[in-house]
Amino acid sequence: MHPVHEAQVIFGIDPTLYAGVLFVLTYVLIITERMNRAIISLSAACLMILGGVLTQQAAFEGVDFNTLGLLTGMMVIVGITRNSGVFQYLAIWSAKKVNADPWGILVMLVVVTAVLSALLDNVTTVLLIAPVTLLITDALKISAYPYLFAEIFASNIGGTATLIGDPPNIMIGSAVGLSFNDFLFNLAPITLVLVPLTMIPIYLIWGRRLEAAPKYREKVMAYQEQHAITDTRLLKQSLFVIALVLVGFTLGHEYHLQPATVAMSGAALLLVLNNFPLNSEEQSKTVHKTFCEVEWTTLFFFIGLFIVVYGLETTGLLKMLAHWVIELTGGDLAVTAIAIMWVSAVASAVVDNIPFVATMIPLIENMTETFGGTEQLMPIWWSLALGSCLGGNGSLVGASANLIVAGFAERAGQPIRFLPFMLAAFPLMLMSILVSSVYLYLRYL
Amino acid sequence: MTAALIMDPNPTALKPTDLISTAARYIMEHRYRSLPVVDEEGCYMGMFGVNCLLRLVLPRAAIMEHGLDNVSFIHETLADLHDRLREVEDEPVTICMHVEVETVPPDNPLVDTLLLLYRTKTSIPVMEPDTCKLLGMISYWDVGQNILSA
Predict the structure, then answer these.
(1) pLDDT per residue as tens digits for the range A71-82
(2) Rounded Cα gap, residues A176 and A164, in angstroms
(3) Phi/psi class of residue A372: alpha, beta or left (left: φ > 0; alpha: ψ in -120 to 50)?
(4) ipTM for the assembly
(5) In chain B, N or C: fewer CB atoms in 10 Å?
(6) Is A146 within 8 Å of A105 (Cβ atoms)?
(7) Distance CA A277, CA A335 (A)
């Protein structure tokens, strides 16, 4: 729990009112998407300090550098690794493994997307898989829609499985001190159920009608996936570092190594390996290019958001909200956990899940005393993670990865429209939440 | 010196209703890099050229924004590429023309116009200010001829 700072808000305004209004305005502006979200959160953060709710020092205390470090480290690693062509290789290899059978390809691409989303971030995964998907479906002369739809679901479900798979998990893990293994043992099992379960309706709606003429399938079979690898040396270096980082995530917790340290060490090592043979001028260019791959907009969005939520927390408003939630659920752990999962899911389908989770974390931390300690809160943390990650499947704006896929579909002349997507996706998302609720209840409550 | 002095005031132009097959044949026969697309009122609409044709024969996943940057794993024949072109050959040129080509007014300074030509690497439409009317085109050849004969 964060310490409370004495607030002296300008013009003698009640700090709770000032921070509350600023927070709501920030949320509204983020939802309306009239302005870049990083600008909104940074401006709101500045107003939180300039308004007197937080001092600059207090604002810095509110920034979760573990989350930022983990995100940045992984962005650098993925930014370098993607240049090796390994992701395209995997997608083509998997398509050929099923003899370019349309439904088989869909299943394989879903598996590849889910696994990569669990180990990397969702946006990068779909950025790399969606173009290959469009290439394959173009060659097979079939609609890309079912494939892209399934990949959206796979990326969000896959991302739920691990600490590093989705930003909400990174934030929750960092705030609560959960390890990579904690997420793996608690959330990965349910995602292993959800991926095949989601494939059933996708098969019934689209899959059973997917067909491609043999001559088109031959075209896909003629792809030479080994040529997708553009830099074998880089591939070896990247796979070595990713393996080290994963070992670091699984074992590091025992040795008090924070995930940010592991990710940043991996990033540093990969930068060393990648730049070692180059002269200083080439190194400058390569490093500059690598750092351009870092999503600075996302990082600045996080920084601003952490400060805004911290400002709100110091006023005690989130504590009040936490008590209100507990009153509403009658202080029952099971009811609270399930309610948080469903509310998180529906909210994450319509609102960016990052600000939602950033707000929910201190709110849930304020429930610690009521439920008798940190250990007792665990089901609620898993609820939040499941709800916010899986909720992203509910609509096209539910997750950044969804919008990336939609952008590709639009450019390929096969647009994914908001309403038709939601009509199919929202019930599917609710189904995944229902199954997750049963899992949560049976395992923890 | 201005753009008007080096432009070709009577450039060959395509109509928006011209089919891709017709335009492709014409461009190949006369070895044009690109031609302006102009409607019946003389209003400039965009540019259609060899780059459009290349775009039509390449896999869409490779030419789109954030698309595949390495396609060396695809081994297609000339017949495969022709098949892809055949799928759109009866479509009008407007489905592929470039509309974001930079244009200049007739009084644009010469050096600035040449710099634009150097940077964009494509012929520049000269437009009547505040209207869509095409006054002429400036190509590498027009510039070369004018400089050599000066």
Answers:
(1) 899 989 988 998
(2) 14
(3) left
(4) 0.80
(5) C
(6) no
(7) 58
